Amino acid sequence: MTLREIGRSVSNTLLRGVGRVSSNVQESKSIPVDLLESDDAVLAVFDAPGTSRDDVQVRFSEGSLHIRIDRFREEHDGFETVFPGRGLALTGEVELPADVEVDPNAATATITGNGTLEIHVPKVDRSDETQDDGLDVEV
């Protein structure tokens, strides 16, 4: 083995190690999210590049949205992964405002062309409900 080959081997080993650390850090942190609110809905926008709909799980629990993304690295013919820096198992969550009542069963999730996951959760419309002042009982 030549000195150049040894140097290349050491360099590739270091890059793989740094890549794994980078990937682990990304997987241990929550995915960045923006939370937006309108009169009739709440919209959570998570960064989710390289994700397909089969990779995503969305759950609503105790006033928060929880997501999990399990992505995969595509193999590229003739190429070897030198720096595996992208996290593959990503999670995120966002707490919805406490004063907002939402209908999680009517929520929709969309992966956009620019690599974001948008979760639209409609608010419960209470304006049509009449106030119950009690029941009149004849005596």
Automatic annotation (TrEMBL):
Cited InterPro entries: A-crystallin/Hsp20_dom, HSP20-like_chaperone
Gene3D superfamilies: 2.60.40.790
Listed PROSITE patterns: SHSP
Domain of life where this protein originates: Archaea
Ranges where the SHSP domain occurs: 24-139
SUPFAM superfamilies membership: HSP20-like chaperones
Family: Belongs to the small heat shock protein (HSP20) family.
Protein name stated in the entry: Molecular chaperone (HSP20 family)
